[in-house]
Specification:
By secondary structure, this protein is an all-alpha fold. It has nine helices and no strands. α2 packs antiparallel against α3, α2 runs antiparallel to α9 and α5 packs antiparallel against α9.
Length: about 200
């Protein structure tokens, strides 16, 4: 890999990681809903999803989307439906405290992975941003995608994990207040609903 391309990529990736986005808001919501460990697990799931996106892009995802553009919309609406389901469960737990429950670490990880994989905006970002730093003359294109993806995934895991952990600490500090917990449920449901709406109106360009 070209050293100068790598040095240019690292600060660009850092700026992208610290810019608030869907993944960060999702981890924030998970922290509020279930706690610090679950938020970190959700962040890990998001990062794994990013690596899967990078792998598929390196294998030629752009050609697939060009040949079958409907794939984009299929992925998008799956993501919308899943986020709305998460919003519904968070809202239901707020209305009926008996149904409220903290996610396990495995559940939080799985949700983070699914939310990331079902967000076609990540696909568009990978196809638009990463190829600018890939140089076929430097070796295998897939390996370069994976190396750049690893940098983004690691940075995202740290940033999103810290945001989610902070939210988890706040929720834990107020765990004794049913009114506060109910409010957190409403906030979490709102976050997930907003993410679903954002994804539903997403344009390909």
């Amino acid at each position: 890999m070209d050293l100068y391309l790598l040095l240019a990529f690292i600060p660009a990736a850092a700026v992208l990681n610290i810019t608030p986005g869907a993944d960060m808001l999702f981890c924030l919501g998970q922290g509020l809903r279930s706690g610090t460990k679950q938020a970190v697990a959700a962040s890990a799931g998001v990062s794994l999803g990013s690596m899967i996106h990078m792998t598929i892009a390196g294998l030629g995802l752009g050609a697939v989307l060009a040949a079958f553009p409907f794939v984009f919309d299929v992925i998008r609406w799956i993501g919308v439906a899943y986020l709305l389901w998460l919003a519904f469960t968070a809202f239901r737990s707020s209305v009926d405290q008996e149904k409220a429950h903290r996610l396990t670490v495995a559940q939080a990880f799985r949700q983070g992975l699914i939310v990331n994989l079902s967000n076609p905006k990540v696909i568009l970002f990978v196809l638009a941003f990463v190829p600018q730093f890939v140089d076929p003359s430097q070796g295998a294109v897939l390996l370069q995608f994976l190396m750049f993806g690893g940098i983004i995934a690691l940075g995202g895991f740290v940033v999103n994990g810290l945001v989610g952990a902070f939210a988890g600490s706040l929720g834990q500090a107020m765990a004794g207040s049913q009114k506060f917990q109910r409010g957190l449920g409403y906030v979490t449901a709102t976050i997930f609903s907003a993410l679903a709406l954002r994804l539903a109106i997403l344009e390909k360009s």
